[in-house]
Amino acid sequence: MAVQHGRIMPYYQPKVDLRTGRIVGAEALLRWFDAGDVLRYPADMQPAFATPVLAMRIFDLMLAAVVKDMQRWLSVGLPLPVSINLSHADMCDPDLLRRVFAQLDAHSVPPHLLEVEITEDASLHRSAEIIGRNLKGLAEAGVRISLDDFGTGYASLTHLKSLPIDYLKLDRSFIRDIARNEDDQAIVGSMIALARALRLDVVAEGVEHADQADRVLDLGCEIVQGFLYGRAVPASHLTQRLMLGGQAEAQVSPREGAPEIGPDRSRHGLAIVGTIGLR
User: Fold this and answer.
1) What is the phi/psi pair of residue 33, to 5°?
2) Residue 39 belongs to domain spanning
């Protein structure tokens, strides 16, 4: 129903440079509204991702909305890089490059502002060859490739050798206790050193507390995302922060299960409404 009636929209979680406190990118996260206009999450439509046709339709709807928001930001001088998750069905689709570039071209968004995130199981499937071709085609056009949840899968090093990876996203499971757990510090420090040796950028996910941010910065990771700097919000709310200079002040970490910012009924990425408060 959400797919049929276009009730899918992206919410954006900022990526922040710890050295400057500024927003340097965002991840587009899927949100949708049920028949009662209640905000729902990807897990609530998980069965849809098991059906390739539906999974690809969801990605197309998300990409179209994201690119429109990026175009609006560009029109007011805000060239914000945005990442979007690729499903397995999309990675295996021989038509993926046409689908992506058609949207970018239609809205005059340069490919280098788009990032796609893949998970570590991408090359473990029999479709690894076509996945490799698709990612290579995206990379050659300037789209950046991010390896999500790094360190939790079985093919991390294989990916780094065989796929055109630009970013490693350190899984939140390594960040949760990093301020007090020496093993997590050693693991994260090793992954950051590996990324640097391979000339890859690093993003730490799940940063919720200032001591976590301090620790990952000490270990050499400058870019983070997580509740400390913002929950996922509609485009209009992120626009407000960007228009005010993109400074990402740390927020009070919300209680587990605290609600996200409510829906932006204007559906227009430049509407300046409400505040960004997370409490």
Assistant:
1) -120, 130
2) 8-243
In a domain, 253, yes or no: no
CATH number of the domain enclosing 142: 3.20.20.450
The tens digit of pLDDT for each residue in 199-258 reads: 999 999 999 999 999 999 999 999 999 999 999 999 999 999 998 876 766 664 433 334
- State how many domains the chain has: 1
Helices (H) and strands (E) in the chain, counts: 10, 9
Residue 202 pairs with which residues in a beta bridge?
168
Which ranges of the chain would DSSP assign to H, the alpha helix? 46-49, 52-75, 88-91, 96-106, 128-141, 156-162, 172-175, 182-197, 210-218, 235-243
> Looking at the domain assignment, is residue 269 inside a domain?
no
Give the C-alpha separation, 205 to 255, whole Å.
Answer: 18
SS3 at position 124: helix
**Torsion, Cα of 124, 129, 131, 133 (10° steps):** 150
Q: Is residue 187 part of a domain?
A: yes
Give per-residue pLDDT as tens, 86-130. Answer: 998 999 999 999 999 999 999 999 999 999 999 866 655 667 889
| Residue 260, domain member (yes or no) | no
Tokens 């849809």 found at: 48
- Is the per-residue pLDDT at 137 higher than 90? yes
* Model pTM score: 0.85
User: What is the enclosing helix (H) or strand (E) of 170?
Assistant: strand 167-170
